[in-house]
Amino acid sequence: MQIVSVFGFVTLGLCAASTVVPRNNAIRKGNFEAQIPRVIGGKPAGANEFTSTAYIEMYDGTSNGGICTGSLIAPNVVLTAGHCTYIDETSKFTASEFQVGFTHTMPDPMVLFKGYSVSKVITHPKFSMYDLVDDIALLILKDSIPSSVAPTIKIYDGEFYLETPLRAAGFGVTDPLNDTSVPTELMAVDLGVGKSSLCSRNSDTYTPKTQICTDGTEGKDTCQGDSGGPLVTPTDDKEDSIALLGLTSYGTVNSRNPSGLCAAKGASGFYTYIAPYLSWIAEEANLDAKSISVTNRTSSGTSVDGSSSDSSDEESESDDESDSDDDDDNTSSRITNVSANDYIEGEGESDTSSGAAHIQISLTAFGVAAMSMLL
């Protein structure tokens, strides 16, 4: 048995080679110990960048709390990670235990944060804290957010490639080994798309149809506290030049990175790919899918599996028809207009067979030393 400290989130993992580490984090309320969220290797986000990013605090009034990040996709809807809605592997925070704010300045984690209240929490029905697949949730706010406070961001509903530029954001320290190096402002970091072979090595539960992983560049990563936060990419749309491609989900623990260190060489961050869930989001939040999404008119590049891919408006219809016949690797970077309703009902159901021997148990005490048991 190997005992590993992993930045203050309690996890107990049982697996053959690796486990997953959620990227939410703890706060301090009274005598409850705080841990600081972080982006590694980033720079301060510009005043006009990531303006739809939400700061989220969860606190149940006793000893359970956490910090996550999200994105405003409609005036009263925040998109975040599914695991941000959980206290432990089975218990969930109630809507009244969330507070949401929109700021580029890090709120004091030692003080009870007061922002916008949440009326309803909707977690994806297939999400489980045991494997962090389908890691996506919606927070329905009690009040609509004025555009002067935070504009909405659209979901990117197109293809992505190894060359696709990625940029993520969050609050926190610049050194994963030094909790005192805490900036006071939102940080952003440029990331690269990882190949499916790397993603599979770094996560037992990697599901290419619904997840994106990064390329393992040393010194650049998101980390604890950034869960649910934006992973954006440029578009060729004049009105929406940046769109939401993914959201921060988890990191990995394996033989090359046994302590689960963020930004370690070869260690990937994993992100929920949002496009496959677009129909589910629209239905649950009573939104029009077309009005909250955007895609590039033309795009091409190298797929995650290494093959060359091209697409255009004229080809999109045939691509949609052919995608369903491809295997996971071939479609991992070429999902266009995937119906989350089909996905939920099983047509595009995620393949978690590689994680059959993997058991991920996330315990209740955010902010206590984490344990990973590798058998």
Automatic annotation (TrEMBL):
Residues 39-286 form the Peptidase S1 domain. It comes from the Eukaryota. One of its GO terms (biological process) is proteolysis. InterPro entries: Peptidase_S1, Peptidase_S1_PA, Peptidase_S1_PA_chymotrypsin, Peptidase_S1A, Trypsin_dom, TRYPSIN_HIS, TRYPSIN_SER. The keyword Disulfide bond applies. GO terms for molecular function: serine-type endopeptidase activity. Keywords: Disulfide bond, Hydrolase, Protease, Serine protease, Signal. Residues 299-310 have a biased composition (Low complexity). Its EC number is 3.4.21.4. Residues 311-330 have a biased composition (Acidic residues). Residues 216-237, 295-355 are annotated as: Disordered. Residues 1-17 form the signal peptide. Belongs to the peptidase S1 family. This is Serine protease. It comes from Coemansia guatemalensis.
